Amino acid sequence: VQEERKKITARLEIQKDDIQAVLPISKNWEVINTAVLTGRQVSQAMKVFIVSQAGKVADVTLQSSCHSEDESVLKVSSSCSSVYVDGSEIRGSWNASVLVKYGTYTGLARFTLWMPEFPLEVNVADFRLSQVKGWRVPDEHFSRSTNKIKRSLGADDRRWVGTGGGLVAEDVDNGVEDDKHSFCRLRYQQSPVEVFARFLAADHDSGRVSYLVSRRTWLRV
């Protein structure tokens, strides 16, 4: 008896490997805003990756566009390669958001932005500074001022003196000495100054305020 051959029919669906997610990545999701105190920009590197349905990962940082939801808290570079603060910010935030877009796909990055609390704490080692007896130093500020006066002398600062052969122009020094080292000032003691600040961030949804490390922690800035 000849066995009947069985046929198996199956349908395979083939789909395009499409993007599953856009993921902004940073090594540190916290930014301490010292720029409002020093005027020097503080930045934090960021990259943008896409993950496909097949699990493939690609860096698309330079092909993405980004914008900060609130630039009074945190700013983002046009290349999406970093977030930064430049000192123009007005508050901190527990959830400062950066919207990332790649094609029609979007992702969201959330940073904690720590803002210094005012007033600051200023510590001076010695509050009473006395004159150092018998010690005088050149007054560079006064010397620069006299040099400016000399450079500004022009035709109006000359006087004409009669001689046997006619008139000769003569500079008027207005009593300004040529030797800049002849102007000295008193020397006083010096003392180091240290400035400390507490940093805070607020959750604008709940109004809750958190301090960096703790409320009792002051950082030297």
TrEMBL record:
Its main location: membrane. Residues 21-117 form the Transmembrane protein family 132 fourth domain. It is found in: Membrane. One of its GO terms (cellular component) is membrane. It is a single-pass type I membrane protein. Keywords: Membrane, Transmembrane, Transmembrane helix. Belongs to the TMEM132 family. This is Uncharacterized protein. InterPro entries: Ig_TMEM132_4th, Ig_TMEM132_5th, TMEM132. Residues 121-221 form the Transmembrane protein TMEM132 fifth domain. The keyword Cell wall biogenesis/degradation does not apply. Pfam families: Ig_TMEM132_4th (PF16070), Ig_TMEM132_5th (PF23486).
